[in-house]
Amino acid sequence: MKSKNCSFTSLVSPYDLRRPVHWDKQFNRCAPTDVEIGFGMGKVLMRMAEESPDRNFIGIEQHWERICKTLRVMTTRQSSTPGIFNNIRILRADARVVFERLFASKNIDTVYCLFPCPWPKKGHIKHRLFSNDFLRLLNNRLKKGGKIKIVTDFYPYLEWVLDQAKGAGFLVETATTHPQYDTKFERKWRDEGQEEFFKLDLFKKRHIRVPVKEDIALKSYTLKKFDADCLELSDEKGKISVIFKDKVFDRDKQRIMIHALVAEEHLTQHFWIAIIKRQGAWRIARAEGQNFFPTPGIAKALVLVYEAAKSTN
Fold first, then answer.
1. How many other C-beta atoms can be found within 10 angstroms of the C-beta atom of residue 65?
2. Which of 62, 68, 81, 162 has its CA 20 to 30 A from that of 3?
3. Among 300, 196, 179, residue whose Cα is nearest residue 243
4. Is there a contact between 129 and 158 (Cβ–Cβ < 8 Å)?
5. Is residue 90 domain-shared with residue 149, that is, in the same domain?
6. Are 204 and 139 a contacting pair, CB within 8 Å?
7. For residues 97 and 293, is the Cβ–Cβ distance under 8 A?
8. CA atoms of 80 and 192, how far apart (whole Å)
């Protein structure tokens, strides 16, 4: 019978951290820091952490089910071997956002990504992770002599990464490798008869400047006059898109809650804005109790609501 116990000690909220993060403080020690992108069920992440207790490991994954399964295994192992995975921290977030906002320059020793989604269809190539921009970002976050290791089952993906690596400051080496990682996708392709995979090692040779994306200071707005019944919100589309999804008016509490979908670059966020009457005036501000990154798009959503509310006078 599988254990249902699950400790969330290793799980770190990207929204609650002071950015960029001082990772040495998160681990309570100074040590080489390695990052695995898309750790899946966590087998490789846990194996590396167990084999190298003198290193810190950060795992990035977006799927809650995979994270919870990993945490359950870690919890079971830790119950019999206390402290075995104290060198692991887990983030549920998009890898692009993590490297843009949570890591300072020259902060990482090694980045691993085993069997990333190759998005094989021509129309889906834009979704591939290791674009030239992303490789330049990783270059900046890697320490001198740092390394990226990618393993893929799809040879055209290897060719694409080689092309994207041009001008990103790396020396690239390629090789074939036999099944050895025991990940879900490696097992899938091995079971279907594939006995050879493709490995890329990218060694940092030249430093690329990519600044850390900083949080935007968000404003709140105040209106003396406002007619809630006349509030009409208009979406805005473009480089920054703000789509208003829902509006709830509590007439008794004199409060409106507005749900906006904010998309900019590769980041899409759900954001709630509150319009509340206090002491004879209406205040427009971010709603409390939500997680988001303060970006130009979030600031734009607040401005759009303020301008729509002001036009009701």
1. 9
2. 62
3. 300
4. no
5. yes
6. yes
7. yes
8. 36
User: 35 with 126, same domain?
Assistant: yes
Listed in sequence order, the residues at least 6 apart from 295 whose beta carbon sits closer than 8 Å to its beta carbon are 213, 215, 216, 262, 264, 267, 269
Same domain, 61 and 164: yes
Strand order in the sheet with 142-152: 11-12, 88-92, 56-61, 33-37, 108-114, 142-152, 197-204, 170-177
DSSP state of 236: B
- Supply angle C-alpha 196, 198, 204, rounded to 5: 155
The last residue of a domain, from among 163, 179, 204: 204
Number of domains, the chain: 2
Q: What's the predicted TM-score (pTM) here? A: 0.92
Same domain? For 189 and 258 the reply is no
* 114 and 262, same domain (yes or no): no
Strand partners, 221: 284
- Residue 108, both tokens: 């990482």
| pLDDT tens digits in sequence order for the chain, 313 residues long | 344 688 899 999 999 999 999 999 999 999 999 999 999 999 999 999 999 999 999 999 999 999 999 999 999 999 999 999 999 999 999 999 999 999 999 999 999 999 999 999 989 999 999 999 999 999 999 999 999 999 999 999 999 999 999 999 999 999 999 888 878 887 887 887 888 999 999 999 999 999 999 999 999 999 999 999 999 999 999 999 999 999 999 999 999 999 999 999 889 999 999 999 999 999 999 999 999 999 999 999 999 999 999 999 8
Domain span at residue 24 reads 11-204
Same domain for 45 and 120, yes or no, is yes
Q: Cα separation of 298 and 296, whole Å? A: 5
